[in-house]
Structures are given as C-alpha cells and as structure tokens.
Amino acid sequence: MDDESIYELDALATRVTINKGEYLFEEEDPTRYVYNLQVGMGYLERLSSDGRRQIMAFLYPGDFIGLIPDSIVSVSAKALSPLTACRWEMKDIDKLMEKHHELEHRIRRIGNRVLATTMDQLFILGCKNARERLAFFLLQMEKRQKMATGETKSIHLPMTRGDIADYLGVTVETVSRVFTIIKEEGLIALPDPYEVIILQREELENIAEYYSVT
Amino acid sequence: MDDESIYELDALATRVTINKGEYLFEEEDPTRYVYNLQVGMGYLERLSSDGRRQIMAFLYPGDFIGLIPDSIVSVSAKALSPLTACRWEMKDIDKLMEKHHELEHRIRRIGNRVLATTMDQLFILGCKNARERLAFFLLQMEKRQKMATGETKSIHLPMTRGDIADYLGVTVETVSRVFTIIKEEGLIALPDPYEVIILQREELENIAEYYSVT
DNA sequence: CGCGTATTTGATCTATCTCAAAGGCCGTGG
DNA sequence: CCACGGCCTTTGAGATAGATCAAATACGCG
Predict the structure, then answer these.
(1) What is the pLDDT of residue B70?
(2) Structural domains of chain B, count
(3) Which of B120, B144, B161 is the last residue of a domain?
(4) Which residue is nearest to nucleotide C8 (CA to C1')?
(5) What does pTM read for this prediction?
C-alpha cells in the first residue's frame, strides 16, 4: 500500500483496549467500525435464540474485523485475552477507499481470504466427523499462529474446550475425548490442555484433508 | 454502474452454454474466468478424497461466480439445468477494475454478500438439527427464487434430495423424512417432490431462525 | 485456602446414519 | 406404442457416532 494512504489511515485510527471476556462489538450494536487486531486473541460468534452458539472464526493479531457491514452479517467479537486493536469509523474507511483505490483492492483481497477460510470451515462442518474436525482445527491454528507470530514449536490454544466445540459444531465432551484419543495414538502431545505439539503432521493432514502451505 | 464500464464489460463477454449435469468449471481447473449466470440453475460443490461432497451454494440467474481466485478456494460449478452464462477472463476484469474503480466496489459488495450467506450456512451446519436445517433451506430458496424470478407462489426445487442433503450436511433419507414430517404437520404442501408451497411461513421462520426480508 | 470454572471420563440415550427394499418417473430403443 | 433400465424418492428396521447427564479431578484467582 502506498505511503500516503498508510499515513492517512494512521491519522484516523483510535486505539481500543478491552479485557479478556469483554466484547469488541456485539450483534445488535448498530455502530460501524473497522478494527485491526494488534495484541491478543478473540473470536467471532453468533448466538441462536435458545443459547446455542457458533464460533465463526478465531482472531489473531493482524486480523481485520468488521469489514463487512453489520447490516448483512450479525456477529459479536469477544476477547480471549486482553486485547488491543486499532479502530476506524467505517465511513472514514469508505472515504479513504474512494481516494486511494489501492485500499479498496486490499480490502477486497482480505475479504476473499476470509470467504475462502469460511468455506473451508463449511466443508468441515458439512462432511467431517469429530476426529477429522479436530485435526483440521489443530492444523489451522498452527498455521495461523505461524502467520501471526512465527512460532511453530507448539500450538498455544487460548480458547477453552467449549470454544473449540462451538467452532467445530460438536460438544465439549467430544472435543475432550478426541484430544485424549489422538494423544494416545501419538499424533500429538499435550503438555497441558492449552498447549499442543504436533508429533505426526502428515498423519494429521491426511485425517483432516488439510494441507497447510509449509 | 456507469454506462461506459457496462459497455466495456459487454464487449469483453463470451457466452457459454452447457447441459444439465455438466461443469462450468472444475476444482483442478487452472483457468481463471468470471461468470454471470443468465439462464438456468446450478451449484458450487467441493468433494473430499473419499467421495463425500459439500454443496457450498445453489446458483440462481444473476449470480456471479468465480470472483474469488481459485488459488485460494477450490470448488466446482455444476449445472442443474441447461445453463447459459456470460464469461470473462479474470485478467480482463482485473484490468477493467483498475480503470473503473466503481466496478471493484461492486465486486467487493457482491463478495460481502456471498460471505454473509456462507456464514448463515455455517451457523446452520454448526448449530441446527435436521428439521431446522430444512426449514432454513426452504426459506432461503424461496427468497432467492423471488429475487431471481419474482415468483413467490410456490418454490421450485431443481435439485435432488441428495443435493439438498449435501448442502445441509445430512443424508438423503433424512431430508426425505423431514419433508414428509413437515408436510404432515401442515407446514408445507408438496404437490410433487420438486414443488413446495409454504403454508405456515411464520412457524417455519421460527424453526429456522431465519427471517427473510419480506 | 476455598470457590468457581474447566477438563476429563464414564454411562446411557437418541438423532441421524446406514442398509435395504418398494414404488414412481422418464427417456430410450425395439 | 410399449417395455425396460436407471435414477430418484420414500419408508422401514437396525446400528452408531456423538449428545446428554453425571461425577471426579485439576487449576487459577481472589
């Protein structure tokens, strides 16, 4: 992106900070902001009226959130850890896009990538069993962590088993059981519930049918 | 969109026609085209190596397909009926977007809408049971048919029960059974397997948690 | 130190899948 | 024009992956 538009973006940005468990924005919220996550992690969720929940995405540093107007999607963004983000008014971004078309192009490409990821997830939920889902999840988190932080030794999972369950469309107990199973099969090591080390990547990739670009 | 870019788009378009059951493009296919469906219907599918299938979307006249480069998503587009579409080279569209920025804006908005729809589907697959899924499906098809053709009396379903099953992440038998159940509950009428009349919209909407903008 | 929350594991239940078979529709070819 | 084959839908019966319910254990925080 050219220097000028970066400079202008920077000038318009506000910094927001929230605690673990708090919302960056909520479903009903009519405000229209765009965020760029800088520090910490979170997730996008949608709730059904009877309390069921779908986690649509986990959020890593660098992720843009809110690029889709809430008039057409309804999700909330919640922090998994203390979280800081840059925030812009949607209308400012709109204006800036009109001026610097390169910005709209960038935003479109980000949107395309989000769509591709969402389709991967759809495929998983539509076709795969619990074991395949968890394998997919672990490889995806490994890849995203690598992108965001460069860390590859172990996968740190800041979310609970319940969050993983609601991301994969299964129950907590199932997630827990499958973790135990694939640990005992020697596919992963689990130093503690929030730390995963992949021992047999290839086997996991075959299970998940998900091949990260290594 | 301004007249000039429509004119240029038109000049660059090729018309393609395929028969029912044929592919507009396939997963491995390295060609990069953008299509606008004009007549007929189809669907986007992804296959897993062991033959499972997820239908990612049903395609109605007016839909744009292929706006996301296949380098990041892998899907095939198949015809449910004889089908004609306009086709452009992706590179031509890219060039035209650079010249007429309004075009890129339009394309971004189309992409946003696709993402919103995909997220709705994700929510359904992650949280809902078979009955809720079918209710969602029927309301969605009704809405899309209305958008595409204006027809609202009955919903015409050109896809098989198997296609619906692979869209909703259940089996053919389950789809068939749920059709029978909601018919006997008086929620819908089924003059024939491919024709649905909604008798109790409100009840269906409550089941699906899907409220079409009427 | 004690409470609340999260994980894990066990036992049972059930929605959906799987397997099987009958019936209907349509296009083809004799 | 009719018979046949293939494909699709529907329905039944039985199997099962994962859900639900329950309880023990571990962990972190005030």
Answers:
(1) 78
(2) 2
(3) B120
(4) A176
(5) 0.96
